[in-house]
Design brief:
Blueprint: E1 2-5, H1 15-24, E2 30-35, H2 47-56, E3 61-66, H3 74-79, E4 84-88, H4 95-104, E5 108-113, E6 131-135, H5 149-164, E7 169-173, H6 178-187, E8 191-194, H7 196-199, H8 204-212
Parallel strand pairs: 1-8, 2-3, 3-4, 4-5, 5-6, 6-7, 7-8
Length: 214
């Protein structure tokens, strides 16, 4: 299982310590939620902070833009050395063009679906994307309760990816812990974003290792 701890749940009073823990751990990526207070009802952090994060942490960056007009920031995300730039289906009028722009910038392109958005909207673009992120909570805040219907959506998306012979990684974000992580693994998920479950654990590295072995 690919594990991508969410920076949103880190201790920003001692961010370097948490970033060094991430580097030591078995996690694969570092998940970064950028929020604008418009697309979602919260504001997280901007590129000056992320420039520091990219300098300190050497794990590949999994950048999730919960913002309107994400295509305006392709250059900034690429400048961080990001592995994945992830945009919301709901925020992109011309999604295929945005995916092409991300690829042209040398990154993998991810598309995120909110809980109420059906996976069927990806039918015509699934072959072009590198990752699909299913939100298992409503985006904008950490620590929310997992929405059980996402297990059904994960199975639907797994079928779509397999039937198309596509290479898209299926990632889940929201309310992920040991229990829901095991359920998602059974449903066909490839990657898990975990925030509170990792950074709130007595031993974050052990929590990452457990999720990694699901």
């Amino acid at each position: 299982m690919i594990v991508s701890p969410s920076l949103l749940s880190a201790n920003f009073a001692d961010l370097r310590q948490d970033l060094e823990m991430i580097d030591r751990s078995q996690c694969d990526w570092l998940h970064i939620d950028v929020m604008d207070g418009v697309f979602v009802p919260n504001i997280s952090f901007g590129f000056p902070v992320l420039k520091y994060v990219a300098e300190v942490c050497h794990k590949p960056l999994d950048v999730h833009l919960m913002i309107v007009q994400p295509e305006k920031f392709v250059r900034e995300v690429a400048a961080l050395g990001s592995k994945v730039m992830n945009v919301h289906y709901e925020a992109c009028t011309h999604l295929h063009r945005v995916v092409q722009t991300i690829h042209d910038a040398g990154m993998e392109a991810g598309v995120t679906l909110n809980p109420a958005t059906p996976v069927s909207v990806l039918e015509d673009i699934i072959d072009d994307v590198d990752l699909v992120l299913l939100m298992s909570v409503n985006p904008g805040f950490g620590g929310q309760k997992f929405i059980p219907n996402i297990l059904k959506k994960t199975r639907q998306l797994r079928r779509m990816v397999d039937e198309h012979g596509a290479h898209a990684v299926i990632e889940i974000d929201g309310g992920v812990n040991r229990t829901t992580g095991a359920q998602l693994a059974e449903a066909g998920a490839d990657a898990l974003v975990a925030g509170s479950a990792v950074f709130g654990a007595p031993d974050p590295e052990a929590e990452i290792a457990f999720l990694k072995n699901l």
